[in-house]
DNA sequence: CCTCACTTTTACCAACTGGTCAAATGTTGA
DNA sequence: TCAACATTTGACCAGTTGGTAAAAGTGAGG
């Protein structure tokens, strides 16, 4: 199913162009709403040519998901148990907000997959993601127990970080409908989130 | 386009059955992923019979959206400028969490629509929703100015309430993948959100 | 019982969509 | 230059899907 490493220059170029186009089309229309023709047009290739590189629509989609999942979890992996609790958590929030701002299509792709029941990545969520989250939740719980941050349910803390940051990518049009199309929400959002998490976590 | 009020009992019954089935199917599969046949089967009717009541797939979808939008905004409308600030806001959070818990399909339907650019309700978001949010944001800003709650960007405060509460409906499978399938997240979520908003809003 | 409007179904269609195939065209290295 | 391989394309297909047409069934009031 998965091809061996692309070798020729042209393979590399086309594979990238296809995945870029697929990201654009899948994130804007969902899996079912995307057509192979749309992706082909956006990539500047013919439909059979796409299917020469990726055997099926499904293969493009799962290739995308796999490629993106790691990048999506990196900010949480970087949460350092040895660091200062509050700065570590604030830095994590900022990294997630950067991801939402710089990679909104990726965010929407995941959101869409999960809203529809995560049929293709549920297994990964239950294994890799759960392990990672449980591990980091334990770190946060330990910080609380040490009295270095205020006590808060660590799992729900992580959920709230995810939801508030990704909101600006996933619900982008709603945010702009309310704040105005030309208003960049990210500076204010960053300020808001820093204030919020500082107030709920800082001791005293 | 819109039919006059359904009059006969059978019209009423079938219209309800169709909208209920449509909600189920659209929220689970998205607009494009849903088929008229799926909805017909779930409603216990034949496909042409559905189209006798609703002229098109699109009509069912927009009928659903219209019907649901009001209910979705009610909790915010109920925010009372005359009430006590903190209890008012906490009550709003609780109402939104109730909606997420009791009407997850409705939440996912909206989320899906907005993620895909809100092609059918963008106008409403820019008019009705914006007006309502601006009005309530002004109320919150006024409370802050009076020194009755801590100062916080009121628009982003509202965004954070939406995102954190709806997260439990929209990303349901992810929450359960992490907390366990049999774990009911809502009691803990309610506790977490109450603590969070109390800490960021309460004076002193 | 009969009429007339309402409801339902059977049969069907045209457009779209994912995917195939064989032929044609490029490209590369000996 | 030429053989071998990689890439691209046009023509095509079968299944799905939204929607239509016309006939058949249903039921309430006269």
UniProtKB/TrEMBL annotation, chains A, B:
Domain of life per record: Bacteria
A single GO BP: negative regulation of DNA-templated transcription
Residues of the HTH tetR-type domain: 12-72
Keywords for the protein's UniProt record, in alphabetical order: DNA-binding
InterPro entries on file: Homeodomain-like_sf (IPR009057), HTH-type_TetR-like_transc_reg (IPR050109), HTH_TetR (IPR001647), Tet_transcr_reg_TetR-rel_C_sf (IPR036271), Tscrpt_reg_YcdC_C (IPR013573)
GO MF terms, alphabetically ordered: DNA-binding transcription factor activity; transcription cis-regulatory region binding
A Pfam match: TetR_C_3
Residue ranges of DNA binding: 35-54
PROSITE patterns hit by this protein: HTH_TETR_2 (PS50977)
PANTHER family (alphabetical): HTH-TYPE TRANSCRIPTIONAL REGULATOR RUTR
Name of the protein in its database record: TetR family transcriptional regulator
Organism expressing this protein natively: Litorivita pollutaquae
